[in-house]
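In keeping with the milestone schedule agreed at the kick-off meeting, the structural modelling team has produced records for the first pair of proteins. Each record is given below as a sequence line and a structure-token line. The laboratory manager (R.T.) confirmed that both were archived under the project's standard naming scheme.
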Amino acid sequence: MYLFLAAVLSDVIPPIATRFVAGETVPEALEHVRERNDEGVGVILNLLGEHYADREGADADVAAYCDLLADLSGTNLRARLSVKPTQLGLDVSEAVFRENLARVVEHAAAHDRFVWLDMEDHTTTDATLSAYAHHAREHGNVGVCVQANLRRTRGDLERLAGLPGKVRLVKGAYDPPTEIAYQGKERVDGEYRDLLAYAFEAFEDGIAVGSHDPAMIAEAARLHDEHGTPYEIQMLMGVREDAQVELAGRRAVWQYAPYGEKWLSYFYRRVVERTENATFALRAVVGG
């Protein structure tokens, strides 16, 4: 099915990609931020790029992020950054990753901006959480993504609860081995609900609900009413954008918006990694 879908989409990727990618250049990305801000939605910008095998590529993206922070400086745009560990050099070495992350986080702190640290596949979890914990203690202007489908995540949340940074809870788009991950939509949904309930009790400074699922968004609203814990909703660019605007009238909503020239691999992965994303892509094709 996925190979068939990819083959069908290959002929129409450029027009579809504009729905899911905020342009190839910084000016295009900033214009996207302005447009979403006018609708009440904040934007989390991610420069597309990952899995660099050499330091040169990682360093170049770090420099681009620092330039982006300078471009944001002095504006009133509601914008944050999001970076991937392998984009910052984790595949080169953990030392390179931590050095580059420090450059981005410290630069962001100087510009009073927030940096999200994406979570990639399960092989990167320990390095990602360790680096996050360090910068959360040092700066506090950082957040990290955790994935509900991993069996370890409850323990990770318990260890993260006392830190000053923020946590984004997602279901998990990667496909980890069965021995370390829950399998099946119903099981993962149940775990997401349980972890959401724990987060609303344990994270007094607030959490990010990374979900397009109306049931999970409704559950977050219920938990907020019960506990009073502040929270925000995070969704991808191009997915349920009408709902993003509608929700922004009542809650803080942030849209994850990638940009840059490497949009093809991002779009392909978004489509094939989960059945739900494939459905969203097809709806985009037909205008649904």
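The second protein of the pair:
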Amino acid sequence: MFPPPDPTRRFQTRPYATGFTLLEVIVVVVLLALLSSLTVPRIFGTQKRVFQQTANQVADLMLMYAQRDRLGQKPVGLLYSETDNWLMLVVLSEDDAIQGIDPSWELDATVAPVKLPSFIEAGDLVVYTDGISVDIRDWPLANSPGRDLPTIEIELYGPDGQLATVVLPSGAIAPDVYGFDQYPIPRAQAIDLDAIGRSREDW
């Protein structure tokens, strides 16, 4: 038989451990390192693709600008909206002149503006005409009637120091796009289906 407990004896309870062991901390650090090594390259790879796509969209917009300037009936211009982060094609409204007020620039409804990604801010878009920097936030880049367009360069600064330059040479109707390493960025190529004998195929 066991002896009765001594009421004068105090029981000492051992507090539970509240911290993490070194092994647990190492496991968590290793898991976080693995997750970051998987996700960070994907994020930067996606941004690079978006950046190149944006440069191509700016080139398409400049192509429309050159064509409208050469063949259109209304004065056209390139304008950057800092509020919306848009680069857009604008036309000079003739309705204002008919009503006896100064004509204003309006968004060309037939050409979609280029929505720049959030990592391209106002200072990351630089425009040059014949090598001179111009600000197209308050007033559009427009050409004098009857004159050839000057050489227009638009520099886009992207993430991780990337630079894309869209160049429309003077008198040209199609721009060139160069990446941050000054090699042309791949663009979609037009295919003449008649020339390759596939004009009757569905596409």
